[in-house]
Design a protein that fits this description.
The protein is an alpha+beta fold and 447 residues long. It has 20 helices and 15 strands. The strands form 4 sheets. It has an 8-stranded mixed β-sheet with strand order 5-4-6-7-11-12-3-13. Strands 8-9-10 form a 3-stranded antiparallel β-sheet.
């Protein structure tokens, strides 16, 4: 890694990324800052700021960030030694539907418990010494933070989805001295930064052997939880005893247990009414939905035949040879129940969100004064699809207004939840012809 001297990398980061609204809160710049930076929560967004420590920000903290410059073709060549057959999903060796064989692991996870089962398998077979995961409630019941799990019990404590933005890569400062090999679970922007750092041969990621992650569509700031609490007459997150984003039977529900014994709940698709009001800017910016730079990525199997069965099913994409081997070994050991599916079936399960990312994000990013660079882009986007995105822009813009948030907080969940779900389904139905048209045959230009 060649260091360029006489450049103030903190000022360059502010100018190129932070001040132009491209920061995705992945945590890399703080994790590699050697204590010079920390996060400050400003209006629900994690903003890196200087600490009182003197010194210069290391160049790696800037170079490792994937927010503005993240060349997917180059990273695909580095990780997989080839380019994707389809830019909708990235490199895929095999696609599966399945779940953890152990019912406890399956039901502890967000959908089928596949990621938890993989980590436990690798740990028990001594392929790894630990797993870098996200854990909720380690410091405060409502806060999530990166955590290195070293046992099956600790892995299961990290199971389940976290829908509030959390800067995972702040833990990079700890990984250099952590005994490996390690597995790492993260979101697409976090993993892109890991891959950039691996390509740079940075010491913080040398012990990471396996990289896994969930599909990631939309995320909300923690302000969404605070708004939900206020809707139920709770004025502070300090009242929370436990917080689970996907509790109960799949697809799960938001569940907040309060210290006074009350339990607040909202069905997953009812709780989603908060998305237009608190969606993160990174959700709108990042074009990677299926976590393309992982060894294995996992999402919910949204298909009527699996939804009717309940229990929890995952769509699983094995992207690397070692990813395929892990799944096949686990299948032989009866640690997971999986069956091969065509990649076309996997794509059909998430057509709406694939369009949201692979068309929508490029439209939205084109509106920015400074555009992130991903090394590829759609060859053509129709005017009709751009019009759909303008409608969404207006909708999200209204949702950000303080008066809109105040109004929605004063509408009972039993009204706003079902109404939003009807609106969501209606919007998907109306926009489907435009959003799905030629999606599977989209052409992309590699720059």
């Amino acid at each position: 890694m060649n260091e360029t001297k006489d450049i103030d990398w903190w000022q360059k980061y502010k100018k190129d990324i932070l001040d132009v609204g491209l920061d995705t809160e992945c945590g890399t710049v703080v994790g590699l800052s050697e204590g010079l930076l920390e996060y400050k929560n400003i209006k629900g967004k994690h903003i890196p700021v200087r600490t009182k420590k003197d010194g210069a920000l290391p160049q790696a903290a800037y170079d490792g960030c994937a927010a503005r410059l993240c060349n997917y073709p180059e990273l695909n060549e580095y990780v997989f030694k080839k380019q994707p057959k389809s830019w909708l999903c990235g490199v895929v060796e095999e696609a599966f539907i399945g779940h953890a064989a152990n019912e406890n692991i399956r039901r502890t996870g967000a959908s089928g418990g596949i990621l938890s089962a993989i980590l436990i398998h690798l740990l028990e077979s001594k392929e790894i010494t630990g797993a870098v995961c996200m854990k909720t409630g380690n410091q405060n019941p409502w806060e999530s933070e990166p955590f290195i799990a070293h046992s099956k019990e600790e892995i299961l404590e990290c199971a389940g989805s976290v829908y509030s933005a959390t800067p995972m890569n702040t833990i990079l400062s700890e990984l250099e001295n952590e005994d490996g090999p390690l597995a790492y679970i993260g979101l697409p922007d976090q993993i892109a930064a890991i891959r950039k750092l691996q390509r740079m041969d940075h010491p913080s990621v040398r012990n990471i052997k396996y990289v896994f992650g969930p599909y990631t569509g939309t995320q909300m700031s923690f302000e969404a939880i605070k708004s939900f609490l206020r809707s139920n007459g709770v004025r502070s997150e300090d009242k929370i005893k436990t917080l689970k984003y996907r509790a109960g039977e799949w697809p799960g529900h938001l569940q907040i247990e309060l210290k006074d014994g009350r339990i607040l709940q909202a069905e997953k698709f009812h709780y989603n009414y908060l998305i237009p009001f608190f969606i993160t800017s990174s959700s709108l910016q990042i074009p990677d939905f299926t976590n393309e730079l992982t060894d294995i990525s996992v999402g919910d199997a949204w298909s009527p035949k699996y939804e009717e069965k309940r229990g929890g099913y995952s769509v699983v994409l094995a992207r690397s040879e070692k990813g395929v081997k892990i799944l096949k070994d686990m299948q032989l050991d009866k640690a997971i129940t999986i069956e091969n599916i065509p990649i076309s079936e996997a794509l059909d399960m998430h057509g709406h969100m694939l369009d949201f990312k692979k068309r929508g994000s490029f439209i939205r990013n084109n509106w920015k004064k400074v555009k992130p660079e991903y090394g590829y882009k759609p060859a053509k986007i129709t005017d009709g699809r751009k019009f759909v995105e303008w409608c969404m822009r207006i909708f999200f813009g209204i949702g950000k207004l303080a008066v809109s948030r105040w109004i929605v907080e004063h509408i009972p969940l039993k009204i706003v939840g079902p109404c939003f779900n009807v609106l969501r389904k209606s919007w998907k139905s109306v926009s489907r012809p435009t959003k799905r048209k030629n999606l599977r045959t989209m052409e992309f230009i590699v720059s």
